[in-house]
Amino acid sequence: MNHRPGSVSTRVPARRDRTHPMDPLSPAEIDAAVAVARADGRLGERTRFWGAVLDENFAREVMAGGQPEGELRIGLVAMDHDLPGGWEIDIQLGTEPRCLDWRPVDIRRPGITSTEARAAARACRESPAFREALARRGIHDVSLTVIDAESIGGFVPEKYKDRRITWGSVWHRVQEDDNAYVRPVQGVIPLIDMATMEVLEVEDHGVVPVSQEPGPLAAGGFGPDREGLKPLEVVQPEGPSFSVEGHRVRWQGWDFRVGFTHREGLVLYDLRFLDRSVLKRAACNEMYVPYLDPSSTQFRKNFFDWGEYGAGPLTNSLALGCDCLGVIHYFDAAYLGGDGTAQEISQAICMHEEDDGILWKHNDLRRGVNEVRRSRRLIISSFQTVANYDYGFYWSLYQDGRIELEIKLTGMLSASGIQEGEEVRHGRVVSRNVQTPTHQHYFGLRLDVAVDGSRNRLVEENAEAEDDAAHDPYGNAVRMVRTPLLSESEAARRTSPATARHWRVESAERTNRYGDPTAYRLLLPHTTRPFARPDSVMARRAPFVHQHLWATVSDPAEQYLGGQYPNQAEPGEDGVHVWQRKNRSLDGAELVLWPVVGSHHFPRPEQWPVMPVDKVRLVFEPDGFFDRNPAMDIPDPSAGGPGDHCCAN
Length: 649
Hints:
mainly beta
């Protein structure tokens, strides 16, 4: 690996020995759990797996002393296509490895594995009907054809409703090293049975020319590299300011643990600032991407990328000096592959410090004194690739107690083929015979809040003009009005920039010196809304996108806001909108917030053939958690001792 000057790294490998109950699963633990399940004798030769998950609630019981040290429980999902049958299998490892429970699961419902995706693509290339459809478009070498196995969402044909099926989006390369995603094969839709790997049928919606324009991504593909770029080095001669012990990290008053799951990828646990609790758990819990184009190769596209594929298996191995620049600490990760073997990801999670400009500043002109402090942030990040798209998740911790999540969207736009001169109503022309459709990205986040303890309440705050003339003699008075959201039925909310709306997570037990509950404030600056008709598949499949914030009482059975198994689910049958019907009290409860941030993506030609990064963001910051600015103790950025003040000149 070529490192840039000044870039160095350390790593936490995917461990062999468990050092803490909340550590991510190691390859050895995953393999051991599968071996215990197979030894039970119920699984056949054609068994596929979707996920191995640490039982976090059991792990916390171990932490609390309620279960013996060294014991852990792992949940597996297995699909045996010989029977056929599917199960959730609870495995206990430790002094006496054993199966605890087998719960039946509809075999159609678990997510699509990479093993299945490769087999489905192979089946298409071997299908005479598929080959004939390609031949009608002048494509005769099927080895150069790329087929992405797509989840079928709510578009399962009635005649196949009892089968586990997928459909394929089709792309073509003119040579082995060609970029297939710039050459969509419009109108060819194979439907594949994932149990038998039989191509059930091939839809052909009419021949559209395949684009002849290349879209190389390698350097030099569009001419010589730009000149004049000088080296930019990040150097920390004394090393980074954080310390790492296993998966525990301490930095500038922050203390937390780094985790990793099959479904969510990067997870942060037990975040404390200045020895006070803030969050119990933080992760991107689900991603939903609906396409807003009725064309033959786009109308089915509405994906639960985490629930139907899993963030874990899609996680990139990051490269020093490319994905991460500076003094980097990496965490390796592991997940269960579809064939039942543990897969390791080297350098799956990157952690580093960055200068973040001015933290606070005041220039006292009367005294001629200029006080400035520079901000530094700690960033914990990972990248997932979902076929053509790439997503980066960057959790940033700041020296004033603020937490931000920045999601970076890049990669290649999903494209359709078009006739020469064809009107494009629902997207944008980006190349000859190529259009990219309007679509949306919804990121459903999970924040298990613990602001100054486990008992919190949720309060909405809005700006309102003063309605009492006695308190507003000049007509300029505005109040910030707080409305407690005390039950789940009240806690399905939308943003309102016009009223500066935000939400406070308040401690139910502690107050600051001004008599207010200590709190953190949630801001959602990037949101969008659905445009699909209420009776559409898109509107019914993912009801959580109709609000920007949901809140529920913590419940181990309620893990994923879009539902436990969205693949081939009945639209809207499970998820946060269902849980809220219980209408549990949120007053002084263990709360889970489910913010939904997103992007309405109307493409630009400048995003072809690859997107410059787009960003969406979430902010969780102290709001009366402290009695004053908690960053007053940040050192003066002096060059040396007294008289060397950086602002003296």
